[in-house]
Amino acid sequence: MRKGKLFATGSVTLAAAALLAACGSSSSSSSSKPQKLAWTEAAELTTMDPSKATDRYDADQFNNVMEGLIRLSNNAKATPGMATSWKESKDGKTWTFNLRKGAKWSNGDEVTANDFVYSWRRTVNPKTASEYAYLFSGVKNADQIVAGKKAVNTLGVKADGKYKLTVTLERRIPYFKLLMGFYIFFPQNQKFVEKCGSKYGTAAKYVLSNGPFKMTGWTGSNLTWKLVKNNTYWDKKNVKLDQVSMSVQKTQSTSYNLYQSGKLDETNLDAQQSKQLKGTTGWTVRKFASTKYLQYNIAKDKNLANANLRKAISLAINKKQLATTVGAANQAAVSFTAAGITDSSTGKDFSSEVKTSATQAVQGYDKAKAKEYYKKALKELGKKSITIQLLGDDTDDAKKVTEFIQSALESTLGMKVEVTNVPFKTRLSRVSALKFDVVATGWTADFSDPISFLDLLSKGNAYNYGKWESTTYNKNISLSKTTGSTAARWKAMVKADQALVEDQGVTPLYYTNEATLVKTKVKGVVFNGAGAPYNFKEAYIK
């Protein structure tokens, strides 16, 4: 999932996934306190169409206004959602979900198995142009449907009556159960979607809820809206909050001032604030399975297609210094896959297995080597100098990143770097239209497995905007999806990440860990480091 994008398999856990330190059990909820929460996002929403959404901020909203077959609780534990129970066949290729009878949409319609069939078919339909359709890979015929080679109704999902959903897979998918808690697999009400037409998901009035809350006040472009308790939700008795006031705060100083004045119950901290406030009441670090990186438009720019130029750029950036400049809790990246994901076959952190002398030779910080690679690139390209356009968001953190990189490349390599910072939604649009040279972007895992990162740069993936390709990379990604050996699968993913870093297909910058303040009166908020971070279902004000 685009970062500004929680799952764990039976043998894979995300160490970062944890309940917020300021949160606790809802059993002691105080009815005397107004049950209203004021929360923030760092960027504006892009869409509330689950088939088309791609980023963490949208995901937060889906996690609370909608519900899939499974709801992810603390530490990404799978709990019943629209499904009361589920069963996996011995060969792992058939999943049966028993749906909850009487669950309602906010318009009063019943949620049925057909809502899931319609939603899944709509997402994989090439006409929808969902960038997340690749997550259905492994569901019977999904790849062929996305490629336009088979009819949408051949997808391996079937409604056996109103309350039973059967899913047929082409291969065992280790993390499939927990994918069911991710919004791209949520149900959609066909009648409502078709009535809204192209306006579906573009404003609160074009959003239908089957989750704990309903959205109000979002026009599609404004920076404030509310989530209000959904009285048609099947488990409304356990929803304590009456309202969550959401606001976009792109500047940490403004957000902190609002927090101090009691207008916000949570705020992100910049590096300086984090150092000053560490250890104070409400201070906590949210560990995300997230990597910030530079993506190169290799297909468009022949200069950036030169591997030596990309290696020069990487080596000219002091990633440790950059990480702490943006946030005191961040870590310099040594791999594309974020830290905190454990290799189930070895028990080691996956990112540590990717790190070798060969990867560090181009991923580390070395000004002298950077200059050598730049000189080679200029000679190969027949250039005396190179100018690049660097695109980034308009938030405080994003501006710090682009300014740092601009200074590093210009001072070390003598390159000219022209920086453009735009609103998050605009940046996504430009990148999707391939109107960029280099973009400072990020990804947060949808589930606790390296493939959530590594799939992005495989051949044909919609998120591989720069069209980087590697035979070694694609071979190992394919092997990871077809081998029946757990050890072989993880080994293949390690090799893929190493091949990516060694060629600098993208340049990993740092792993995101956000320092925050949360009011101690806020209880029961669940945080997970991958996928949709926040679950307010059982949150309350004490």
UniProtKB/TrEMBL annotation:
Question: Per the UniProt entry, what is one GO biological process?
Answer: peptide transport
Pfam families, per the entry: SBP_bac_5 (PF00496)
UniProt main location, coarse: membrane
Using the record, list the residue span of the signal peptide; answer none if the entry has no such feature.
Answer: 1-21
Transmembrane regions: none
Compartment(s) where it occurs, according to its Swiss-Prot or TrEMBL record: Cell membrane
* Solute-binding protein family domain span: 78-462
Recorded topology in the membrane: Lipid-anchor
Task: Give the domain of life.
Answer: Bacteria
> Which Gene Ontology cellular component terms are annotated?
ATP-binding cassette (ABC) transporter complex; periplasmic space
InterPro entries per record: Peptide/Ni-bd, SBP_5, SBP_5_CS, SBP_5_dom
Keywords in UniProt for this one? Peptide transport, Protein transport, Signal, Transport
Q: Which family does the entry's similarity section mention? A: Belongs to the bacterial solute-binding protein 5 family.
PANTHER family xrefs: PERIPLASMIC BINDING COMPONENT OF ABC TRANSPORTER (PTHR30290), PERIPLASMIC OLIGOPEPTIDE-BINDING PROTEIN-RELATED (PTHR30290:SF10)
The protein in question is named Peptide ABC transporter substrate-binding protein
Originating species: Lactobacillus equicursoris
